[in-house]
From TrEMBL:
Superkingdom, natural source: Bacteria
Stated name of the protein: TupA-like ATPgrasp
Coiled coil: 24-51
Keywords carried by this UniProt record: Coiled coil
């Protein structure tokens, strides 16, 4: 060991020098941490600046939700297309008129005290006409004198089924009428089929989101994002969720239904079943808040803004501000699917 090395070792053994070295190392760690934070904040600032100065779906979506909530509170809102889209049975009638398959509806009741569970098949879904996410939806399988959720996570008695909806109705999270429909399967053996959620911008498909949950109402789920052609949008795709074998049919249905509503955006939820594509619901203001890469967020933002422009052009050309129904017969549809006094409008858009 050289004299200098020996002296350095001796000095490091001195408390004041050792303390200085510890402080120096701590300061360097702080500098490195703060540098990372500054870089992260700079990136976030750049992202937010880009949202302000260019198209951004992340910026538009909160406004879409606010407009939806305000529209639902307007006088005579019940006659507006906005409120018709919020009604599940109205969605079914609209879809059926365009030849899009819908679940078999077993029964419709105006009020909870009219619901007759004993008259239903052993497997069914009980729903309220209005209610978001998993609220107002119970997929049930008869077991003995009661029922079990289709995923097996909870049991219900006939009374507790009604109580579930009564609690939601009391706080405005479920609104009648109430109805029972077939419990769909995607043929994979899953208790609950994969949701295929198609983000449609007045005839243009921005993305397709696959979502699978092992438990009804669970906030945790597996997701995969696709283009309209079935290509993965992101490198970290969850390939355990297969691309729907009827994706082209699902996308075509979503395009048709998005042009049938007078809004620049609608999310069309469908199920890919062995019997074909079946509508789940239409949603104008989805509650999910996925943060997408900047380039894709800008793409969806552009889709929304371009859809607004094309919709305004069609309104100028005479498109009625109404839900546009197709020509497929609706003889099989219960009267409860249609609001009395509301005309079913038809209009053919000009060829662009």
């Amino acid at each position: 060991m050289t004299l200098r090395a020996a002296a350095g070792r001796a000095l490091r053994g001195v408390p004041s020098v050792r303390r200085r070295d510890e402080v120096t190392r701590a300061l360097r760690r702080d500098v490195a941490r703060l540098t990372r934070e500054v870089d992260s904040l700079a990136a976030e600032n750049a992202r937010l600046t880009q949202q302000v100065t260019s198209a951004s779906w992340a910026s538009h979506l909160p406004a879409v939700r606010r407009q939806f909530r305000m529209g639902m509170k307007l006088p005579d809102a019940g006659t507006m297309p906005l409120t018709r889209i919020a009604a599940k049975l109205a969605n079914y009638r609209l879809a059926a008129s365009h030849g899009v398959a819908i679940p078999q509806v077993h029964a419709v009741w105006d009020a909870l005290d009219e619901v007759a569970l004993d008259d239903l098949p052993d497997r069914f879904v009980l729903k309220s006409e209005r209610g978001s996410a998993a609220r107002g939806v119970l997929p049930l399988v008869r077991e003995g004198d009661g029922y079990v959720l289709a995923d097996g996570t909870a049991r219900h008695t006939p009374a507790s089924v009604i109580e579930h909806f009564a609690r939601l109705e009391e706080v405005g999270r479920a609104v009648g009428p109430f109805f029972a429909e077939e419990l769909l399967s995607d043929g994979s053996g899953r208790a609950l089929p994969v949701d295929v959620k198609i983000f449609a911008y007045y005839g243009v498909i921005g993305q397709v989101r696959l979502r699978a949950s092992d438990a009804h109402g669970s906030r945790s789920s597996r997701k995969r994002f696709l283009t309209a052609d079935g290509e993965d949008l992101f490198a970290d795709a969850d390939t355990s969720l297969p691309v729907p074998h009827l994706l082209a049919e699902a996308v075509a249905a979503a395009r048709t239904l998005s042009l049938a509503v007078p809004f620049p955006f609608v999310r069309v939820d469908v199920y890919d079943t062995p019997q074909g594509v079946v509508l789940g619901e239409l949603t104008l203001a989805p509650g999910s808040d996925e943060r997408h890469p900047l380039e894709h967020d800008q793409h969806l933002g552009f889709c929304y803004e371009h859809a607004q422009s094309r919709l305004l052009q069609d309104l100028h050309r005479g498109r009625p501000y109404a839900l546009l129904y197709g020509d497929h017969p609706l003889d099989h549809a219960p009267r409860a699917w249609h609001a009395p006094g509301q005309a079913e409008v038809r209009w053919s858009p000009p060829v662009r």
